[in-house]
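Encode chain A's predicted structure.
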Amino acid sequence: MKRGAYIVIVFFAMVCMALSASAQKRGKLVMGGDNLRLLIDMRSTKTEVDSLLKKAGLKGANAAAILKGDFTALKKDGWTMAEKQGNIIEFDRPLEALNLNPQVTPYLITTKIDNNDNESPGYPADVSFGINNFAKITVHELPSGLTRFFLPGYAQSKRVLLSGNFNNWSTLKGIMAKTDSGWIADIKLKPGKYEYKFIVDGHWTSDRYNNLVSDHDDNSIYFRYNYTFKLNGYANAHKITLAASFNDWDANNIVLEKSPKGWQKQLYLHEGTQAYRFLVDGKWITDPANPNKIQGADGYTNSVLNLGETVVFKLDGYTNAKKVYVGGSFNNWEHGLIPLTKTKTGWASSLIIPPGNYGYKFVVDDNWITDPKNPRNMMEGGVVNSYISVKPNYTFKLSGFNNAKKVHLAGSFNNFDDFGYTLAFNGKEWTVSVYLKPGKQLYKFIVDDKWMIDPGNKLYEPNQYNSGNSVLWIE
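Encoded structure for chain A:
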């Protein structure tokens, strides 16, 4: 019995040593303080090093070269060798160079990724801009472009989920991975506003380190940034703030942070045209790096920023016209602000417009006309206008009805307007593309003034007219 016990103990010790050696050879990437630490075990396999380099966001690095002692790719990417202990080589990289938020408590970075295809930017509510406010950073961007959610503690918990509008508040998806200091989940998000909570052993909980919460349900709020305002120089300035059309020209709530090259501020900014200026120690200035400027109603000159899709408006003919403008719901129907430039065949102008559905018209020598080349229209205020969808995310299709004279689309997205959006016939089917917000959408087609549900969609629900509405879910 004693000999048997001895053999079992020796075998157990050998297994532990093998597991320990295997764990050490994997290497790891750790975040702590204000830097990333990359630890490479030179006894690792090429596959193990490739996996580690992927975690660190190094796409061009060659694992075989690194295992031979060639660290050129690491150095080019901003990593510096910190120390070497036996077969373990440690490299450091400042978080500042990665545009990341530093962490107070280090934790292991894993490769567990939730390949989320349900990004919902701007949902549940559109906002002009957003800036995160953490007591301790628990959500940040990784070099890979993924967003990491971190729940510190809860070492005794058995199961933790991340749930939010990005996965339709699922209680099944979003499984978080346990680390030595908490739980993490990596997901893919587009820029926008997101609400989320953690589900710890079946109990919903907000992010206690996140100071931004929704007015309802105490959901934690995170903004995935998409823009950085920069002002180079001004090393001796004491305080620089940003005032803009998107924050009602408040010169106090957006304070720029000092950087090695000057001043900057990251934030989420809704697409569209925005005017802004900087306040440097009490003195207003425009952005010296931005040549686009406009005179404000208050007498100040402002810099102008355009975020969105480029849309080209063309009007063929009318070569004898003196002035041609375009106006629409994208600029509150101001007809004299957006001039078209004369071309050999007519008139044209390029505009940057945020995603959405818009009505528009051309103004030819003070006469409003619809776009003669656009068969799609919409009704606004009892007036028929040309219709355009910028960055549409769904195309409605109605097959057949070849002899129909007109087909329109009405739904919850346009208040079931009787005119709706006009569909165009391509010889096989009627179509119209629409920009829709995430969530449930109800709709119907109107074929020669007759309302009908979508024959190609099996999803529908009853309505107050006992005729039903087709149902569409946008993720």
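Confidence is low (pLDDT under 50) at residues 1-25, 96-122.
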